């Protein structure tokens, strides 16, 4: 096993190297305010038996869970994904693939709407990359917390008397995001957890011991300006507990596929998400900007780079978009002016327009939309308006169902020189959903939610459903049966009258012909 602990602090929160104590391959420091990333690399034999057995039969898996509580950007941890549980799965050949759902339910929640990869997952697409061949499928659930995961890890990784281990595991309840990657070829499992720097305004009190079979590396770093636009730069101290007895100063830089906008542009392009009211069964998802006329391309991009503004929208099964309502190949100036959307680039998942939510097995769908970043005209509000539709849901008492929808991810996708190797980032995050739709040479610049908006990265909306207080299933069934029977009887009578009328007509015609024949003879 390997452990890499990284702390990213602001320059004003720098730690005195004399306060970093290393004794007998054990590091300790306290009072540091910083963002924190913990990354563990496990061999397949390091994992609990139940998880190991499921993984070895499941192929490659990428799991991304993001908190519903928004967190600010911290370089180099700049990648964004929708709140909830997102999974990319590549099954083994000639193997059943339904055990992936058993794994997800074991780790995260037994209530997940997951019955197997073939039933619940959706096929992924890569419409904007000519070099990628996508062979994986995707799953999503708006999982609100990691309670079951924390309890499972604590139960399998810690002895009941190990207070320090249990305390470390309990920190997972407060993560901003967690990634789990299993490679079916190398059989290695990578677990990454990230905490934002103002988590409950707490200061880190850290003790890390280098184990015989677990190499530990620690970085205490801050960001610094990089010389090249595609690079990120860090400086501070690195400690390898198997080799160092004091912090080693360091400065290094690397190209990154994930970036943030400048402070000024981040403020100008901050966005807010809401649903128009009343929503009814055909809601409009509205994205508003702090300064709609200031949606300019990122100021600092590689030379010759071209940038386009996109949004990646994740829709649970109760909500869907009609793909035929969006322009795809040919531009629609009227639609673009009315909605702020240039075109639909990709749609994956459940596309049936008629099925009710309770009849759908797949988790939902995703949209990739190219947005209009030009100056807003006096005729428009300057907002992005995405037309959506609710599916019919099960009836409830009160006639309403409150649901949560994750906020879309907004970003500029910019091209870069093929000579720039974006895989050299030691803190890289991939398989986030939107990134797999673009080529490996794409750089993403993320827009940030409005800081004045509420803390949640989800939007609440109420769906009208059948009210069981006023109408029962029995009444609905009886009324439906009555209407069907009445309709059948009506049609049967009309058809019967038509047949009788047709028969009478033929009799009249036959009688007339017989009379004419007699007269002619």
From TrEMBL:
Keyword terms: Endoplasmic reticulum, Glycoprotein, GPI-anchor biosynthesis, Membrane, Transmembrane, Transmembrane helix
SMART domains listed in its UniProt record: PIG-X
The keyword Protein biosynthesis belongs to this UniProt entry's keyword annotation: no
GO cellular component: endoplasmic reticulum membrane; glycosylphosphatidylinositol-mannosyltransferase I complex
GO molecular function, one term: mannosyltransferase activity
Annotated compartments: Endoplasmic reticulum membrane
Classification via Pfam families: PIG-X
Domain of life: Eukaryota
Keyword Endoplasmic reticulum: yes
Signal peptide from the UniProt entry: none
Major subcellular site: endoplasmic reticulum
Membrane topology per record: Single-pass type III membrane protein
Pathway(s) it belongs to: Glycolipid biosynthesis; glycosylphosphatidylinositol-anchor biosynthesis
Listed GO biological process terms: GPI anchor biosynthetic process
Family: Belongs to the PIGX family.
Protein name: Protein PBN1
């Amino acid at each position: 096993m390997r452990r890499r602990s990284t702390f990213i602090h602001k320059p004003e929160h720098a730690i005195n190297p004399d306060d970093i104590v290393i004794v007998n391959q054990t590091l300790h420091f306290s009072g540091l305010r910083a963002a924190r990333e913990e990354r563990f690399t496990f061999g397949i034999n390091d994992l609990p038996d139940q998880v190991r057995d499921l993984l070895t039969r499941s192929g490659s898996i990428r799991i991304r869970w993001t908190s519903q509580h928004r967190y600010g950007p911290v370089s180099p941890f700049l990648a964004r994904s929708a709140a909830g549980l997102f999974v990319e799965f590549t099954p083994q050949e000639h193997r059943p693939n339904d055990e992936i759902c058993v794994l997800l339910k074991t780790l995260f929640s037994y209530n997940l709407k997951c019955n197997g990869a073939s039933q619940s997952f959706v096929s992924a697409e890569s419409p904007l990359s000519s070099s990628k061949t996508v062979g994986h499928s995707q799953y999503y659930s708006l999982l609100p917390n990691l309670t079951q995961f924390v309890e499972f890890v604590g139960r399998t990784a810690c002895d009941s008397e190990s207070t320090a281990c249990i305390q470390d595991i309990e920190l997972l309840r407060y993560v901003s995001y967690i990634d789990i990657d299993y490679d079916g070829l190398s059989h290695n499992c990578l677990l990454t957890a990230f905490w934002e720097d103002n988590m409950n305004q707490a200061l880190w009190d850290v003790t890390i011991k280098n184990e015989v079979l677990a190499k530990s590396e620690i970085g205490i770093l801050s960001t610094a300006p990089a010389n090249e636009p595609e690079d990120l730069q860090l400086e501070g101290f690195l400690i390898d507990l198997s080799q160092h007895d004091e912090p080693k100063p360091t400065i290094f830089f690397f190209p990154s596929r994930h970036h943030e906008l400048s402070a000024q542009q981040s403020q100008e392009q901050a966005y807010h998400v809401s649903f128009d009211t009343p929503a009814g069964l055909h809601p409009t998802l509205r994205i508003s900007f702090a300064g709609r006329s200031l949606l300019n391309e990122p100021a600092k991009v590689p030379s010759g780079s071209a940038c386009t503004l996109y949004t990646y929208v994740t829709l649970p099964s109760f909500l869907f978009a009609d793909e035929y309502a969006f322009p795809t190949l040919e531009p629609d100036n009227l639609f673009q002016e009315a909605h702020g959307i240039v075109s639909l680039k990709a749609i994956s998942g459940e596309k049936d327009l008629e099925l009710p939510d309770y009849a759908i097995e797949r988790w939902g769908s995703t949209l990739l939309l190219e947005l209009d970043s030009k100056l807003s005209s006096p005729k428009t509000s300057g907002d992005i308006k995405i037309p959506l539709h609710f599916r019919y849901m099960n009836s409830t008492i009160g006639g309403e169902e409150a649901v949560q929808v994750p906020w879309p991810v907004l970003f500029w996708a910019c091209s870069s020189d093929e000579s720039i190797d974006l895989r050299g980032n030691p803190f890289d995050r991939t398989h986030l959903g939107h990134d797999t739709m673009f080529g490996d040479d794409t750089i993403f610049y993320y827009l940030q939610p409005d800081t004045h908006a509420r803390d949640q990265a989800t939007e609440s909306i109420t769906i009208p459903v059948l009210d069981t207080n006023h109408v029962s299933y029995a009444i609905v069934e009886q009324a439906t049966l009555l209407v069907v029977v009445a309709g059948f009887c009506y049609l049967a009578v009309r058809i019967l009258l038509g047949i009788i009328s047709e028969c009478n007509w033929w009799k009249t015609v036959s009688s007339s012909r017989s009379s004419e024949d007699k007269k002619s003879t």
